[in-house]
Design brief:
The complex is a heterodimer of chains A (311) and B (422).
Chain A lengths: L6 H9 L2 H19 L3 E4 L4 H14 L8 E5 L5 H13 L4 E5 H7 L15 H11 L4 E3 L16 E4 L27 E4 L7 H11 L10 E8 L2 E4 L13 E7 L10 E3 L5 H10 L4 H5 L9 H7 L4
Parallel strand pairs in A: 1-2, 1-4, 2-3, 4-6
Antiparallel strand pairs in A: 5-6, 7-8, 7-9, 9-10
Chain B lengths: L9 E9 L5 H11 L5 H14 L14 H6 L6 E6 L3 E7 L7 H9 L3 E7 L6 H13 L3 E7 L8 H17 L6 E5 L23 H7 L11 E3 L2 E4 L7 E8 L3 E2 L3 E5 L3 E10 L2 E3 L1 E2 L4 E6 L10 E4 L6 E12 L5 E2 L3 E6 L2 E15 L4 E4 L2 E2 L4 E14 L10 E5 L6 E10 L1
Parallel strand pairs in B: 1-3, 1-4, 4-5, 5-6
Antiparallel strand pairs in B: 2-3, 7-9, 7-16, 8-9, 9-15, 10-14, 11-12, 11-16, 12-13, 12-15, 17-23, 17-25, 18-22, 19-20, 19-24, 20-21, 20-23, 24-25
The chains are: A alpha/beta (311), B alpha+beta (422).
Amino acid sequence: MSAVTSQNELEILASRSHLDRLESEAITIIREVVSGCESPVLLFSGGKDSAVLLWLAIKAFAPARLPFPVMQVDTGHNFPEVIEYRDEFVRKYGLELIVASVQESIDRGDIPDPGPTGSRNRQQAVTLLTAIRTHKFDAAFGGGRRDEDKARAKERILSFRDKKGGWEPRMQRPEPWNILNPRIVKGEHLRAFPISNWTELDIWEYIAREEIPLPTIYFSHERTVIERDGMLLSVGGPVVPEDGEVPRKEIVRYRTVGDMSCTGAVRSTATSYEDVLAEVSTARITERGATRADDNFSESAMEDRKREGYF
Amino acid sequence: MSAVSTASNTQVRIATIGSVDDGKSTLIGRLLHDSKGIFEDQLSAVSKASRRYGDGTFNLALLTDGLRAEREQGITIDVAYRYFATPKRSFVLADTPGHAQFTRNMVTGASVSDIAIVLVDARHGVVEQTRRHVSIAALLGVSHLVLAVNKMDLVNWDETVFDTVVTDVAAIVSTLGSSVPIHPIPICATDGENVVDAGDKTPWYEGPSVLELLETLDITPAATIEARLAVQWTLREHGGSDYRGYAGRLEGGAIRVGDMVTVHPHGYSSTVAGLTRAGSPTDIAVPGDAIAIELADDLDVGKGNVIVVDGTHQPVDATGLIADVCWFTDTELNVGDALVVRHASGEVSARVAAITHRLDLETLENTPTDRLILNDIGRVELALSSPLVVDEYTVNRAGGSAIAIDPVTNATIGALMIRSGC
């Protein structure tokens, strides 16, 4: 009777693009985690992946309100444009925002002070785990994607974390048919990755299709930078020129958004969604390889950080 | 609305399966490399790793074996997901482990795939692990099996060797009663013969390359049942509105505003008053869409209910299941064991009422047994503490699949394909 038989329905089915399939998959995962967990939270860095994740979460529950808060781990070295964007997004959609501060973790003595110019990227894991415990969250949504890194490529959609917050890649729960197992005992928690199967290009195509607002630093602008370890770092905050490093003005944009001390800019004149999309589709270097000093220390850098409780 | 016209590009999900060392990771490395799905920094990381772990020659398998233990042992332990696109389609590829001890990860990768690529080493032909993986893929119900007979260079591109493998795989599939189409291709993954482009070493083979097949195989599911939606969550608007949307993913067939529906397991009848897809109102939705349904009547509906368009194929409200289970854990399964069964329509306690047989992978015959051990595929009967709303797996994958969870450790210990409910 109502089985898919008519030409009209077949045409609708065929018109569903890869973005539609990814969108449906992500929304289904978000709803399933909310229904299976007591107290979820969405990690919102202000970067493009978490912007897409939050956009999908809003759609998953529309016209109802988002049934969980969003949380940012603030390293204290964030780009000011990103903080401004975060606050505007949260205000516009009436969301509840929690800020977990790395500086407070340092002040409490939970983590050693890396100094004013040291990277606070790895230390974020401690702040994140403390916040998860304090607020008694049992699941944290993240915008991690499997195409970002070879350790992420091995991660489940619902990733189990033990009482210390650690990830054990050999003990992951199988997810046949994407049936998620959200059962945990007190003290354990889950990380949920609804956009696991999206690539950087999918993200940009979706952002352009949906016209999702982003921080201005994703688009071309003039910035004073120095070149360090082959990366263009923005001068200011934690980045102080050392001997031989000459600050200069460049026309750049960011492909990823992270801690200012280790996130590099790329030379670019892309000022619109279309420009960025064109640039990304012809890129020959991965976004992390191009812009993240933190992942290039060793070939297992991400696996090691994830075992310690990183995103 | 749209700022950029994005080409409507079908997404296809693929799993590579087969025994260890048959060259799965190398084939994927080749597909990514030749379809320009690899970035320069990834290539340089692989060269570096090849020097460290290999004999120094560029090892494409290191592109997908991402965990340190995998690189050290030179094997694939867990599923790795890789992404590439051609102008025709975009692909999500699950590279699954070949070792028997990691079969659970192979099941995971293949369960959501449209196409399985079976790798067979031409020198060894069909071995036990090939038999196991082909059987699982056939039981899981992939739409197509691409049979890539690899390392053909090491058997001098001998057509009779190729034919033997094809005959053996076809025999496995037909013995299991599966009608999945098989697409055999002779290849050499290390040099790329018949992987992306047709080669010149197999004049006796006139078919497409692996990539050409992946770009053209028809993966549209043949829907033969009415639409159903397992409710995940109830959407309620704050402040005055009486909006109530039952959210979930649509399976089976299409649904329209105005359709008559029945809510299982209660049996309430109602009419679809409104639909949203990904948060926006729509008149019609098709299988795979993440939607929310408004009903014309004020009913007590929530997680655990399944909303089904009226028609001939209704699901069963079951307190008993007969299912084939892939057993994932070292602890054996015995009659009387307690399990948690998680299904789209809910999570319930279950007890093993009977174990009737296991599939013998040597003979492909059902052998009587009263227990299942790690990596067994066998038939069980389960008694449930409260009803699940189920379909037969062969009719509807989403409504016919479930996982078994250990109620003590919370580990996922089995994959269930439901054959019938009562």
